[in-house]
Amino acid sequence: MNIDAWLWWLIGAAGLGIALVITAMPELGMLAVGAVAAAAVDALGGDAVLQVVVFAVVSVALIAVVRPIAARHRSQRPRLATGIDALKGRQAVVLERVDGSGGRIKLAGEVWSARSLDTGRTYEVGEEVDVVDIEGATAIVM
Question: CA angle, 25 as apex, 66 and 17 as ends, to 5°?
Answer without folding.
Answer: 95
